[in-house]
């Protein structure tokens, strides 16, 4: 893919290369070298179908929470940037909001406008499930972004990060570091995002499962609501409650700004910390190597770029050109990379700003 923006659309924020390659394949015009004719089976499918070639004009509606958070802001920017790459796409975003009823009303307006496809990042999948189902029942394919709708009939395709895998990546980094240091019975703290969300619960489960393989467990866990202010408050409380800490996993680099501020204020540095999502701020801290933040595990907002591209293919009746199947898959899960000082230079230009 020669377009630099298109490439950034799939790799920014540290999405795992393998997963990025899978989704990039849906628009690739230059497939990898094929085996020779003698080696290929006679019934082998044709190579890439040129999905970037302009096709039927489609209108893609887009709804997401308010961009009051670096990751959410990057979601909106990635979606818009992806849509602008196609002359056959009319991008129709609605006002972003953190109010459930307002988001339902916004999606209702897109259904009434009879858009060709919908990309929805719901504030809460459970509460937005009914309106997504209404869109699907009206014949409008829904690409469910990240926070999943519980009813599979409510969406055509889901694309999102691997929340469980994110926790696993953080758990393995912390577990291995503590084992290598010979720490026994470590104090490990976990600062979640919004505790009631399934994505947070998946992250926590992955973290606990990975730590268990080293014989470790989480000492204390508290949620910080994905905000800087809450991150500061929660971290301050945890620091006061634990006079000795060995490691902290903070689920979200945006709230991590507040977490790190509280740590600096307390003058604590006897532990190391792992972040989450892959923000540019976190990467710069990791690169500097002067604080407690040693790593972050990615959860890339580039999934929004991919969601828009998938919505276009679905609305135009196309599949992913590097796959044998004629239809876009029902679900695509991106993987989580671990960014450390050793590889941060590779990812830093691709991080999102908090």
Automatic annotation (TrEMBL):
Gene Ontology cellular-component annotations: cell envelope
Q: Which UniProt keywords apply?
A: Signal
Pfam families from the entry?
Answer: Peripla_BP_4 (PF13407)
Q: Where in the cell is it found?
A: Cell envelope
Annotated stretches, region: Disordered: 33-52
SUPFAM superfamilies of this UniProt entry? Periplasmic binding protein-like I
* Highest taxon of the lineage: Bacteria
Give all residue intervals belonging to the Periplasmic binding protein domain: 60-318
Write out the similarity annotation: Belongs to the bacterial solute-binding protein 2 family.
Q: What is this protein called?
A: Sugar ABC transporter substrate-binding protein
**What organism is listed for this UniProt entry?**
Planomonospora sphaerica
């Amino acid at each position: 893919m020669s377009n630099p923006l298109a490439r950034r659309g799939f790799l920014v924020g540290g999405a795992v290369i393998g997963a990025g390659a899978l989704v990039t394949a849906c628009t690739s015009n230059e497939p990898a070298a094929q085996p020779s004719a003698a080696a290929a089976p006679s019934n082998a499918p044709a190579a890439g179908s040129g999905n970037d070639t302009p096709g039927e004009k489609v209108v893609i509606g887009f709804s997401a929470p308010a961009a009051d958070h670096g990751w959410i802001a990057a979601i909106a920017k990635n979606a818009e940037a992806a849509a602008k790459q196609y002359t056959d796409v009319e991008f129709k975003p609605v006002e972003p909001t953190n109010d459930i009823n307002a988001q339902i009303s916004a999606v209702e307006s897109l259904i009434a406008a009879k858009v060709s496809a919908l990309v929805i990042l719901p504030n809460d999948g459970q509460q937005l499930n009914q309106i997504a189902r209404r869109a699907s029942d009206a014949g409008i394919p829904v690409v469910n972004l990240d926070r999943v709708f519980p009813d599979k009939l409510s969406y055509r395709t889901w694309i999102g990060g691997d929340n469980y895998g994110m926790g696993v990546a953080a758990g393995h980094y912390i577990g291995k570091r503590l084992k290598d240091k010979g720490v026994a019975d470590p104090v490990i703290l976990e600062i979640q995002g919004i505790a009631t969300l399934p994505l947070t619960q998946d992250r926590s489960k992955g973290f606990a499962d990975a730590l268990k393989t080293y014989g470790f467990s989480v000492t204390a866990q508290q949620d910080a609501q994905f905000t800087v202010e809450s991150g500061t408050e929660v971290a301050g409380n945890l620091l006061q409650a634990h006079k000795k800490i060995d490691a902290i996993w903070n689920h979200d680099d945006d709230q991590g700004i507040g977490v790190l501020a509280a740590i600096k204020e307390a003058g604590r540095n006897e532990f190391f910390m792992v972040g989450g999502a892959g923000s540019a701020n976190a990467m710069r801290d990791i690169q500097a190597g002067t604080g407690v933040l040693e790593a972050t595990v990615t959860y890339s907002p580039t999934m929004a770029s991919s969601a828009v591209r998938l919505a276009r293919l679905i609305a135009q009746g196309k599949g992913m050109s590097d796959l044998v199947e004629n239809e876009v898959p029902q679900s695509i899960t991106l993987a989580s990379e671990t960014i450390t000082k050793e590889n941060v230079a590779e990812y830093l230009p691709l991080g999102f700003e908090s």
